[in-house]
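As described in the Methods, two query proteins were run sequentially through the folding procedure within a single session, without resetting any intermediate state between them. The first query and its resulting structure tokens are shown here.
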Amino acid sequence: MRVLAAMSGGVDSAVAAARAVDAGHDVTGVHLALSANPQAYRTGARGCCTLEDSRDARRAADVLDIPFYVWDMAEEFREDVVDDFVAEYAAGRTPNPCLRCNEKIKFAAVLDRARALGFDAVVTGHHARLSDGVLRRSVDLAKDQSYVLAVLRPDQLAGAMFPLGDTTKSEVRAEAARRGLAVADKPDSHDICFIADGDTRGFLARELGEAPGDIVDAESGEVLGRHDGAYAYTVGQRKGLGLGRPAPDGRPRYVLSITPVQNTVTVGPVEALEVDEVRADRPVWTNGSPDAAFDCRVQLRAHGAVFDATVQPTADGLVARLAEPARGVAPGQAIVVYRPDPAGDVVLGSATITEAVRTATV
């Protein structure tokens, strides 16, 4: 097959491309330039999408002796990932930009362009397993990325290859060293690539401007403090609340909800974070839409805990009833639905969380 290898400049994508070559595919490497000003994105070990990463990807392609190109995707990335990120925070939600990048950039814009150019598939270094259209967790659960891939439609999965799903991260690094790839010891990227200094609050303030409002106690309705922008907070947050006085019982307070219309942040005790029902819209099902309730497992944020649940499909989404309460479930995040399987949990689909509530009495 003619395969396009998306090469980020990291060790995972380099080894994935190498395995595609070993499998006998006709491989071309491509690095995605996601910023009109790459110096504005992170450097070194702090992120991805930098000039350094582009050079590392090119060197890896040279070692593999495959053609290599750089595709300018800055405009698409700004519109579909960065602008979406800002808009979601402005609406009081907490988005996952890596999930959106996979959905809109790597497996929409890139896959569409690759197919138009005659490629059969796009190969990436994601840690997940894919076989006959079935997406499963990676064998390396600590590095599993099936959560951020669960937004992919069946037709997109049909054009994807994830060669590293059966390999641990330490094994990937050892293989890269054996192959003579200079990125073998390159640190993993962290946080959000388009926030150069890692200051999400500062980035949002620059994008949205200051919007002062009240921080309110959930139980008494009392105003406990002020904020410069509700977008700087997320459900479940404990630190950085800037409250003028402690709770009467001395226990810490947590962000319970964000109301953009009133521009208020509501806080309360940790127990008030507990929810047992999650509602979501914009569903994506990997193998056909279910038409009845079913038992499953759900994950409510990247690298978060997994909960047994019963999922009920709805006209525009789903409702998940959790067997045990979860805390800190934020609107805007994805709920990913898995079918338990001894060979590795299978991704059934995903949706975007709109609301999480407590229905059971304590």
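Immediately afterward, the second query was submitted; its sequence and tokens are:
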Amino acid sequence: MFDWDDLRIFLAVARTESLSGAGRGLKLDAATVGRRIARLEERLSAKLFMKSPQGYALSEAGDRLLPHAEAAEQAFAGAEEELSGTAGQLTGQLRIGAPDGCANYLLPQVCARICDANPGLEIQIVALPRVVNLSKREADMAIAVSRPTAGRLTVQKISDYHLHLAAHSDYLAKASPVRDKADLRAHRMIGYIPDMIFDKELDYFAETEAQVVGLASNSASVQMHMIQAGAGIGIVHDFAIPFAPGVVRVLPETVRLTRAFWLIRHVDDRRSERLTRLAEALGQGLRNEVARLETLAVAETWSQP
């Protein structure tokens, strides 16, 4: 017979791939976590983890146990919601993973409004230069710039968004004219570090005739700061332009990119009314905020003298 507490420890080790990492989350020392895993393995007569220099990886038996342990986790969470009278209410702590641009320019104000409407709610925003791993419970839900094709996930499109070339007006006033894409060759371009682009949807420069990225970062917000400092021209989210005084769109009719945000949840979380309500509020809030900020960005467009 399974002990939920043992399964809880099993899930923590599976997600962190470390006894010490699991212990930190569970507020237990690593030795205690190790003993509990050993006890569970003895009870099941199966080795659940393979130890390597990289950490604790699930064995074949551990892989088979994982979905059952996650189902038990969801069942306990659902029971707790029902018995506490919080089913469907937006309370407690929730963690959202998101790419840099969304995390910096959209989620702060969207999540603030959701928290204002739900005083018992605490939201954590995890901004990572990669896709958040929901299987390891790095977050309760995630926003991505491309639709995942593998994993036990549910995926919902939130909204399209747009990107344009942009530069600071002071830079454009003293730089070579930019009348078409060919003129970009005379300018320093700002963009992503090529070998650190974690999603093909972030590889923007095929859309231009620029040859070299002279200044680069794996962070969209750092790129925007470079542009605002007058360092060159880059491709930026329209929704970020209102946060950067002096930055204007360049060649908006010539270079215009469309991308999409996707809301990703673990498939087992469909049973949580609370998470479903948060997903609905988050999706609607992001759609409204993208539309509002993109409308403001249209006014910030450079007119070549």
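The longest helix spans residues 273-298. We note this only descriptively and draw no conclusion about the first query from it.
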